[in-house]
Amino acid sequence: MDSALIPNGVRRCAFGKFLLGLAIVGAVLLWGVYAMLLCWFKGLNQTNMNDNYGFALWIWADLAVIALGGGAFFSGFLKYLVGKDELKHIINYAVLIGFICYSSALLILAIDVGQPLRSWFIFWHANVHSMLTEVAFCLSCYFGVLTIEFIPLILENRQINKVSFFHHLAHNMHEIMAVFAATGAFLSFFHQGSLGGVAGVLFGRPFAYREGLFIWPWTFFLFTWSAAAYGPCFTLLITKITESITGKKLVKDNVVELLAKISGWMMGTYIVAKIIDTIYWASVTAPSKGFQISQFYANNSFYGMWILIAEILFGGVIPALILIMPSGRKNPKARLLAIVLAVIGVCINRWVMVLQTMAIPVMSFDKWALYYPSWQEVATTVLPVAYGTILIMICYRYLPIFPQEAELNPAVD
Amino acid sequence: MKNEQSHETTKKFGMVINLDLCTGCGSCMVACMAENNVPFKPDETDKLKSITWMRVYRLTNGKSFPETDICYLPRPCQHCEGHGGHSPCVSVCPATATDYDSQTGIVSQIYTRCFGCRYCMAACPYHARYFNWFDPVWPDGMEKYLNPNVSPRMRGVVEKCSFCYHRYQAAKDRAYVEGQREIEEGDYQTACTQACPAGAITFGDLNNPEHAVYKLKQDANAFRLLERLGTNPKVYYISSKEWVRRAADNYLPNEKTGK
């Protein structure tokens, strides 16, 4: 029925089956939209956030998707600026995933604030001292860049590309894409860092507070570094999931292994920096504020020392070692394990920097504040996942996202 | 350096609370709520989403009877000015909805500019900032008691103690009308100071040697909450009890309070 829209040389499932898939994910999306409307019309009393837990699941989700979406800026940087040409076979997908992650982040922020209609005040009454201002500016600008990077992909749809203007527009946009990749890398560097700064500048919260360079706490650099390291892993993970669902190989092993190798080395260097940061924080920064490291991981029913071990060892050291070793990254199972661990690791890091920071009592007579999200929060957090899945389904079906697909899956008639 | 000098030459309103005198009666909380139009909630049992600009903590020395000792610690906004004049909350607010007034030392909140990101709440270690989770509720008749000098806040914004700033404005106006004189001690008092039956709360200009707070803050038993964080609060406490002073900051086991 829609065969005229499907890229040349590739096969897609029946239109009815595609619609059924869309309907299933669409139902989840509608559930999220319902919860979102509840939050907008009834207010944030629909959540389980409270006076002690002003930041919670949404901000974690926001930080996590932005870190995971870091594959877009870093892959673009590697392809267009460093010259890793092999990555042209996965860059389209990285851009699409980045676009989904960043649009999701903006959507989550729109639900998270108490007065969504006033969100523009962040630009109008901007406080240049606030890391959140820097995040808002860079995030919005980078989303614009990602949109520009995404447009040529849409224009390459078989029917749209037949229009001469769109064909040439797409071609010319590709020609100057290095400029946007450079702009994106610059903007992303700052907003990924600013997200780290959001937690790192909280000098009233010794768990998150970090010393640093000039106006930037160490977490500024750690967040940028980790996004560059872990983002490509998420691109690889989603690629693997897409391959599993479609039952096709979509990207050649040499491309995957190259990205895995770069990611592994980035992760390795990052985790060394993270360990040094943790040691300095535990032995110098925290004691200067009157805290021993054990106080951050005790006297509560959830945040034990296990979370630090899970983040650094299982979410950092082990996946880095697997991906750095040629035998590890060439073994599909080991590589997948490393990628999954890495994605979990960066998510734990963002969770810790948001939720554990809020949970720890700073006044000695205060109590640990534990929290669980309401169904409205869960639904609105699942909402971007459903939205992303739908966008991937549509883009995969109608756009030439994977340049190697036709070669890897020759049509048999 | 210029900023530091200007801080020294202007008024710096602050509070000294004598914990030895405080009985924990809660008058200050009630007076604060009434004075500042702190709203009711649809469900007052939901204490985790309550709004109490002035909150009284109950501290205990943790020992069993008969050595148990109790202390009540009233906690308004601390009106910090740490880190080069930046309070934890002021420096983080992305929309400049909260600001530090260098003329008075008061940290103010512009409700109509706040868009409810709650970053200030995350930054404040004292939990002194409150988000309006609900639309304000005024039971029948209660709206008649609203203070016309204080704007009620809408759902979705953050609010906090302002040291009854509207009273400062009124005191300034009064002083102007009375011959453009300077504001004197007692002209400007917060509602909690007035309401405290034990006289535990003293309010005034911390920079003015003529004011009682100037002398009280130099008491050998005076301390501030979480002083080592560098927030530099303008609320001082006095307690003759060592365990209370220790509870005010996170002293390591072998560390002395220095008093």
**How many beta-strand segments of chain A?**
2
* Helix-strand string of chain A: HHHHHHHHEEHHHHHHH
**Which pair of chains forms the biggest interface, and how many residues does each contribute?**
A-B, 48 and 55 residues
Structural class of chain B: alpha+beta
Please give a structural write-up.
- The complex is a heterodimer of chains A (413) and B (259).
- Chain A is mostly helical and 413 residues long.
- Chain A has 15 helices and 2 strands.
- Chain A has helices at residues 15-42, 57-68, 70-82, 91-112, 121-124, 131-155, 164-175, 177-200, 218-246, 253-288, 306-324, 326-330, 332-359, 375-398, 405-408, and strands spanning 212-213, 216-217.
- In chain A, strands 1-2 form a two-stranded antiparallel ribbon.
- In chain A, helix 2 packs antiparallel against helix 4 (91-112), helix 4 (91-112) runs antiparallel to helix 14 and helix 8 packs across helix 9 (218-246).
- The relative contact order of chain A is 0.17.
- In chain B, strand 4 (98-101) and strand 5 form a beta hairpin.
- Chain B is α+β, with helices and mostly antiparallel strands and 259 residues long.
- Chain B has helices at residues 2-9, 27-35, 82-85, 88-92, 119-123, 165-177, 191-195, 212-216, 242-247; strands at 13-18, 55-60, 70-75, 98-101, 106-109, 129-131, 158-160, 201-205, 222-223, 235-238.
- Chain B is 23% helix and 17% strand.
- Residues 1-8 of chain B have low confidence and may be disordered.
- Chain B starts with a helix and ends in a 12-residue tail after the last helix.
- In chain B, the strands form 4 sheets. Chain B has a 4-stranded mixed sheet. A two-stranded antiparallel ribbon of chain B has the order 2-3. Chain B has a two-stranded antiparallel sheet with strand order 4-5.
- At the A-B interface, helix 5 and helix 6 of A face helix 4 and helix 5 of B.
